[in-house]
Amino acid sequence: MSANAQENNARRLKAVLDSLARAGQETKVGGSAVLAEAIGLFPLNAQESELLSGGVPRGHKTLTAATTRLVKAGWLVKGRGGWSITEEGLRATVAFPDAVSLATALAEGTPVPAGTPLPEQAPAEAAAVLVETVQLVDAVEQAESAEPDRTTADSTGKGSEEGTEDGTAGAAAAGLPAAPEEAAYPQPEAVALAGDFGTLMGCPEDWQPKFDEVQMRLDPADQLWKLTVDLPAGFYSFKAALNRSWDENYGAFGQPNGSNHELHHPGGPVTFRYDHRTKDITTSRP
């Protein structure tokens, strides 16, 4: 890794810890969102943007691997519900206030000095916005989980649709306006759920959008591409790849060639939904 790439990665790692500190010790945040924010603050250079064999940008994989050092230091906890900062991690943001000092502490195994205070709390206005955002996300997730699942998974892991959803139940439950009906929205010829679980779905390889097993199915009623699969418990990464190739693909937050979506899954059926209007993927469990 070049010196410039090392510096950028150190800045991103500091941004990850700072982002979790702003959220607070009691708040769990999606790992993909935290990584995407860090990369947004310090964008990948040309070399870091190169896609590896799995369709993952080199810089994103490097940053993901680097976060394990935060876990080893006892500053970050990765769980099924998301990522959260520990009290020692909060103190680390004070003890090591910049990217260089943080990177050095991690490399040398330097603990947080005794007596280091906790960081000052975020301004009330910023904290209120954060709480409101978390509550909104929770409401949407609860509404989606309360919806009856209308899909089943066969023995190969491919989804078979038994009905359709209009997508309005979750929005109403969350106090959000229902999406307007659209007779037809221009759609790609195919959408694949390409990720590190391809072999679990019957594919010869992971991260290959050309196989039938990972193709999603368009529901004309709500214009969403869907696939339900039965996965064992674990941590998974994936993207939406269009037309059976990587020429056009979308990651977290619908970003072209963006960071991987990530899923901490307790095991069992999970439904993936791709919306070509937003280029984003959502998940829900029965």
UniProtKB/TrEMBL annotation:
Residues 191-280 form the Amylopullulanase X25 domain. Keywords: Glycosidase, Hydrolase. It comes from the Bacteria. Residues 273-286 have a biased composition (Basic and acidic residues). InterPro entries: Ig-like_fold, X25_BaPul-like. Residues 141-182, 262-286 are annotated as: Disordered. The keyword Oxidoreductase does not apply. GO terms for biological process: carbohydrate metabolic process. Residues 166-182 have a biased composition (Low complexity). It comes from Arthrobacter mobilis. This is Glycosidase.
